[in-house]
Amino acid sequence: MAKPLILASSSPRRQELLQKTGISFTIDPADIDETIDLSLPVEEEIQRLAFRKADAVLRRHPDAMILGSDTVVYCQGEVLGKPKDAHDARRMLGMLSDHRHEVITGLCLLSNRRRYSTVSTAYVTFGPMSEEEIDAYVTCGEPFGKAGSYAIQGKASCYITGIEGDYYSIVGLPVHLVYEELKNRELY
Question: 28, 70, 85, 88: which one is catalytic?
Answer without folding.
Answer: 70
